């Protein structure tokens, strides 16, 4: 893959709560409103492997996510195949004022969207920032 996004935030909630929101498919659409889970099944390592649809502009891309690392409450690694091949590394660490969340996302641009170039990279960066903000809001209001 060739596109890397690195973003972080501090969430005023315990790492366990934040991790559980990331690992539970019932909350995925609240974290990423453009994502619809079409099937979820328990993963061998913990959490859930899933089939999903991702809406981007007027397009819908389908794919699958597989849990690669499940270390509650500190690390969750997910690989996706299909419409948007990607590698998500979520790292959570306890800080005095809550939980630091570091996200490393490495993804491949689908051929159908390659024409968008830098605009796509900018949009993906905004999407990740929105996901982190949504995760923060959910974790802090529970």
The major pleated sheet works out as: 7 strands, antiparallel
Q: How many domains, as an integer? A: 1
Q: What structural class should be given to the helix and strand makeup?
A: alpha+beta
Mean pLDDT: 92
Radius of gyration: 15 Å
**CATH fold-level name:** Alpha-D-Glucose-1,6-Bisphosphate, Chain A, domain 4
Strand order of the largest sheet: 1-7-6-5-4-3-2
How many separate helices?
A: 3
Give a quick summary of the entry.
This protein is of the alpha+beta class and about 140 residues long. It has 3 helices and 7 strands.
Please give a structural write-up.
It is built from 3 helices and 7 strands, in the order E-H-H-E-E-E-E-E-E-H. The longest helix is centred in the last third of the chain and has 24 residues, at 118-141. 20% of the residues are buried. It has helices at 15-23, 28-31, 118-141, and strands spanning 3-11, 35-42, 48-56, 59-71, 75-82, 86-95, 98-107. Strand 3 and strand 4 form a beta hairpin. The chain has a 7-stranded antiparallel beta sheet, covered by helices on one side. It has a single domain (3-141), classed as START domain (Alpha-D-Glucose-1,6-Bisphosphate, Chain A, domain 4), CATH 3.30.530.20.
């Amino acid at each position: 893959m060739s596109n890397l996004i690195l973003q972080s935030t501090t969430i005023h909630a315990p790492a366990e709560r934040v991790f559980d929101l990331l690992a539970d498919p019932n909350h995925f659409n609240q974290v990423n409103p453009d994502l619809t889970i079409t099937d979820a099944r328990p993963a061998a390592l913990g959490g859930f492997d899933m089939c999903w649809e991702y809406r981007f502009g007027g397009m819908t891309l389908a794919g699958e996510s597989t849990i690669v690392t499940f270390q509650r409450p500190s690390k969750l690694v997910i690989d996706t195949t299909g419409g948007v091949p990607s590698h998500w590394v979520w790292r959570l660490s306890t800080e005095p004022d809550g939980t630091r969340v570091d996200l490393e996302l490495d993804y491949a641009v689908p051929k159908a969207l390659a024409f968008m170039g830098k605009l796509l990279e900018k949009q993906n960066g905004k999407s990740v920032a929105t996901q982190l903000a949504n995760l923060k809001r959910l974790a802090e209001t529970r």
